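From the pipeline queue, job 12 of 40. The input is one protein chain; the requested action is below.

Action: predict structure.
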Amino acid sequence: MKRYFVYLSTLAVTLLMGCDSFKDISDATEVEPIDVNVDLEIAVENVAELKGLTVKFDNYDEDLHYVENVTGSSVKVDGIIPGIYSITVSGTAIDTENSEYYINGNSVNEALFKNGSTLNIKVKGLKVSPLIFKEIYYCGSRPQKGGVYFRDQFYEIYNNSAETQYLDGVYFANLTPGIATTKLPVWPEADGDNYAYGDRVWKFPGSGTEYPLQPGESCVISQFAANHQLDIYNPQSPIDGSSSEFEFNMNNPNFPDQPAYDMLHVFYQGKAEMGSMPQYLTSVFGGAYVIFRVPEGENWDPVNDENMKTTDLSKPNSTTYYAKIPIKYVLDAVEAVNNESMMNAKRVPGVLDAGITWVGATYCGLGVARKLSTDDQGNPIVREETGTYIYQDTNNSTDDFERGVVPMLRRNGAKMPSWNHTLQELIKRI
């Protein structure tokens, strides 16, 4: 059944003073809705079934939105008001081996003014990931005495599956550009859309099984794993990050190493070294983040392998390198931007994140949190075999995240892993 939502916020007529103005109004031509055809190229091998496939048309400037269910490889969307649209396609696919994939594709800044026009959208798929970003707090807070504070940023990773997952060797990267922009980098043509491009890359420590994450458990990576509400930092911060499992330690004597485990630094500007600036933060306007794992038997070394790094080709003399992260490695991706109008500034391939999320302000002490999956009555879905919540993950951050929430570590009762340093300290005291 077709579903569509249209929200018209623009005025067709601006009220002007004088008779001539009213004459102009009477002569105005009514805008006629148009029909648009969408043809999908689904690049998932051995697809046996498509589930919940939808195509969305969004014109954020005019607040126009349309949704249509898709049952095959093409669909006609009726009654679209002409304008500039971003189109996203999302759903799931089941292959012949019963593996589930999130499938996504998008096209931005499409000028739709001709009735009966056809859009061709390539749709790719990634296997459903057991590890997801559960909550991200990036915009910082503002001290009462003035100034700004960004040391309280954190990223929470959740085991959304029914099986134990190991963090050992999983990578975290923030992508370039750090701030969403319509002036995107130019990448090698041979890369196609097979890579995301990392600005800085970190890795979880461990030899393979040192950092298990049970179903329903989460781990927190803090920029600085301290209690930020202390007088020495920023009592106005919403975050006590002292229970974080990991931190991005930059060896800054003003922000000393905390009991949390240190993430391992992997890549920055083509090198393994951290660089001269003793701080690591992602944009308070919203960055793009990925977690990924290199498949067993493959080698990924962007420092020493020239094929795994590149410069921005729009800057011919640039010596700033970015790590090429194969899309097939990515477990989860979230793209955050300044505000809801920035869909045309996406720097993440649609297969990783077909949408965007945002807070809409900086240093306001707010973040984004992933929604719980719910049943038809709106009740949270609990996994039967583990008794744990399942979070919504469609690889579309527009749909998957609540925005502008007060950040909270381990929201909805997510559990700490047994190896968390604060739990270990409690055990020692008993």
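Job complete. The chain has three helices and 24 strands.
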